[in-house]
Amino acid sequence: MTTTHPAAAASPAPASPTATSPSDLSDHASPADLAARKGFGPRVRRLHGRIGAAHHQAEGMEFSRALLDGQASPLQLAALIRALGPGYALIEQQGPELAAALGAIDFPWAALARSAALAADAAALAAAPATPRSAAAALWLEHLQALAQQAPHRFLAHVYVRYGGDLSGGQQLAQQANAILAAHGLPAVRFWAFDQPLPVLKAALHDAFEQLDLSEAEEGELLEEAVVAFQDTQRLLAELGDLRAA
Prior knowledge:
Strand content: under 5%
Number of strands: 0
Radius of gyration: 17 Å
Largest sheet: none
């Protein structure tokens, strides 16, 4: 089944990033990560190759640099947690059935699931001031809903980008975020904390993507949508960068 998703091609361009920071996450891959990359399957290698530039752009945006430098505010972190919840909830509701229908039956969904942690984090950060409804997150959620109905293989590109990031660079973000929250007397977030060893989860995620039974056209659209997933993320990062109140 080959489907196309016009919204992907019409997706607005990402916010213009600043130059990448010297502390870019991708420049700090652990030896274990570097070794693991050598064992990537062909589809995961193609995904990594396609999203590299978008990854660097996202890292160079104002909020990303502020968080990596320990300068983000608790308000921005609370807004991030609140914004991500609905999208992850949809991914975890729809993803298992969509992936299985495309031949990927071994996704570690239960171990990867983030929506419960996001809900708990949002409750724990209730002391942080209220934040505006995220327009970027609403657009992302609408986009995911359309993909789930029209182009499941494109939907799964968002699964790869989100969980892959949480398991990799998200671990450095977690250290900085929790240090910022602790300095303000707020609890640490659990969003980036996984119960299983990260190398095991990364390998399981990658193996599941190699299982997908896609046509040549769907393969190209999966790669294309991975970049769109980063554009959706960049909209949220730009929004968070504008949220400067302490």
